[in-house]
Amino acid sequence: MNTCSITIEAYNNGRITKGLFAIEEHWSCDEGFSVVPGARYYDHIICTLDDLDFGRYDSEGIRYIADLLDCVPGDIISATLED
């Protein structure tokens, strides 16, 4: 399996934070994620995840990240491949 690092930006809600804490072993830094002010009603969460399956990300894209975090694809604003 080829692994990769992916930086995600998502809306700050319960599904995202619960999902991120569930996969804490994939956080790229000890702090885990950053919360930054967002437009309108939601702040944004930015997190880099390491050791993710590149093949699944390449074929499924955002859907893979949503499955990993157990959230809906609409919670994720963007996902950027870091490798």
Number of domains: 1
Net shape: globular
| Largest beta sheet: strand ordering | 2-3-1-4
Number of helices: 3
What would the average pLDDT be, to the nearest integer? 93
Low-confidence stretches: none
Number of strands: 4
Give the CATH level 1 class. Alpha Beta
Give the CA-CA distance, first to last residue.
15 Å
Amount of helix: 25-40%
Overall structural class, as computed from helix and strand content, comes to alpha+beta
- Rg over CA atoms, rounded to whole Å, is 12 Å
Report the CATH topology name: Alpha-Beta Plaits
The name of the CATH architecture is 2-Layer Sandwich
Walk me through the structure:
With 83 residues, the protein is of the alpha+beta class. It contains 3 helices and 4 strands. It has a 4-stranded antiparallel β-sheet. A hairpin with a 7-residue loop joins strand 2 (33-36) and strand 3. The longest helix is centred in the N-terminal third of the chain and has 9 residues, at 14-22. The model has no long low-confidence stretch (mean pLDDT 93).
What's the arrangement of secondary structure elements?
Elements: E1 3-11, H1 14-22, E2 33-36, E3 44-53, H2 54-60, H3 62-69, E4 76-81
Antiparallel strand pairs: 1-3, 1-4, 2-3
Entry keywords:
83 residues, alpha+beta, Alpha-Beta Plaits, 3 helices, 4 strands, globular
Provide a quick synopsis of the model.
This protein has 83 residues and is of the alpha+beta class. The chain is built from three helices and four strands; from the N terminus they run βαββααβ.
